[in-house]
Amino acid sequence: MKVGIVICSSADLPSSFIKTNDVTVMPIRVNYKDHTDIDVRDSKATQKFYKKYLIDKNLHAETEPLSADEMAEWFLENIVTKYDRVIALTLTAKRSVTYANMMEASHEILQKYRQKRRDAGIEGPFALRVIDTKNLFTGEALVAYETIRLIRGEKLSFEKVFPKIEAITNHAYGHLVPEDLYYWRNVGRKKGDKSLSAIKYLVASGFDIKPIVTCYRGESYSEEKVKGFDAAVGKLLQDATDAIDKGLHIPAICMSYAGDPAVITKREVYKDFVVHAHKNGVKHSMAIMSITAGINLGPGSFSIAYAPIKTSKEG
């Protein structure tokens, strides 16, 4: 029995990790004014996008998930003859219709897969489970990492993995900090979000104040603000270091950067964090931030996710 793992292209896992662990990326459209691209987490294409976005801050780009019918067709053509059991992980249902579309598509997939497998000479049934990660970007990546670890590493059965992954979605925290608030405010205005008013934007920009956005159990909020991007990144890495000391539900921390990851990895604070993670047996990954995240947060943004055992919210 071959088990497959499908992730959204918004999940911030390194391309090499995705390839090594036989993970399939479900594509998403990136719509520009005059053309449409398909994002499947190609690192070169993503870097090209960030360079273009830096030059043209008013670049009109929006991501669009596949429709339910398109998802069903994609699964039937690419997945049902490759795997016998599949877990599909989506970004939080509270911020995207991807989960709803995937759930709708699953009914058609399960009705039509038999003929596809029969034509390919494959015996036996196909099973699909869809999980809302309740998170964004590196938060999605963290849930995906644990799914991969349990299936590829621990060799847990499909039936046993599903409830464990559903449970872990309630412990994952994703944190993001934008480098330039212009992108966040500009995209928000296009969507009718006025939370960052002109006055707040001018004040924050003038004093170099960076908000730290957190996603937890599907909800996104900004309770912390730090002066300077470097200080914000340092705080997030220190918080992650402290979380390692207190214990993690998942022995891993996922990070991403909207641009060349070397901008972050060459910093001493990052190197210190990596040493601490290694000493404590905690894996870590650094990926190029997804285009979906980059459109909203802008080039130069940083994200990190982990699952602390104890938090004030969990008691």
Question: How would you describe what is shown here?
Answer:
The chain is an alpha/beta fold and 315 residues long. Helix content is 44%, strand content 24%. β9 and β10 (219-227) form a beta hairpin. It is globular and about 60 Å long. The relative contact order is 0.16. Residues 192-204 have low confidence and may be disordered.
Index terms:
6-stranded mixed β-sheet; 315 residues; 4-stranded parallel β-sheet
Outline:
The chain is an alpha/beta fold and 315 residues long.
Task: Give the secondary structure arrangement, pairings included.
Layout: E1 3-8, H1 15-20, E2 23-26, E3 28-32, E4 36-39, H2 43-55, E5 61-65, H3 68-78, E6 85-90, H4 98-119, E7 127-132, H5 138-153, H6 158-168, E8 173-177, H7 181-190, H8 198-206, E9 209-216, E10 219-227, H9 229-246, E11 252-257, H10 262-265, H11 268-279, E12 283-288, H12 291-297, E13 302-306
Parallel strand pairs: 1-2, 1-6, 6-7, 11-12
Antiparallel strand pairs: 3-4, 3-5, 8-9, 8-13, 9-10, 11-13
Helix pairs in contact: 3-4, 5-6, 9-11
